[in-house]
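Journal club prep, shared notes

We agreed each person brings one worked example of a sequence with its structure written out as tokens. Mine is Copper chaperone PCu(A)C. I'm keeping it raw so we can talk through how to read the token line rather than staring at a rendered picture. Sequence first:
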Amino acid sequence: MNRNVLPVLVLLFALVSLGSCTKRERHPMASEGLRGEAAVNLKGFHARPTPDGATVGAIFGTITAPLGDTLRAVKVAPDVAEKVEIHRIVQNAAGQMEMRPVPWLALPEDEPVELKPGGLHVMLFGLAAPLQAGKTVRLTLLFQDGGERVLEVPIRDE
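Then the structure, token by token:
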């Protein structure tokens, strides 16, 4: 009977040893994505006011994902804008700067990703009304892990 127990004990020891080699959660919000709220830090989000008749606007801010993630989509209510996209400013073949949509945005572990004028940003197309200083826009960020974050983005002069 002892000959049968030894292989089982060796296997059990190996499994326990391998389990201790896995990557541990480093951030207290790591499980938040499992409950529907993405484990990301959002800082300085704001939109700039737009003039009367403007059909586009932009939102800026900084996203940090302590465990890494991917921003898959952004949404606003239809009474704010018809379409929302993540954009990047790039130089084209003629040397001119132009905006290009980004299908998704990688968020490296613990590295802030800045959404700013002249770089990555959130574009609002088909504005229903001008973005007015002192008001807010409700923005929803959808992440790869299934989590999402909803925030009230202040509209302010920068």
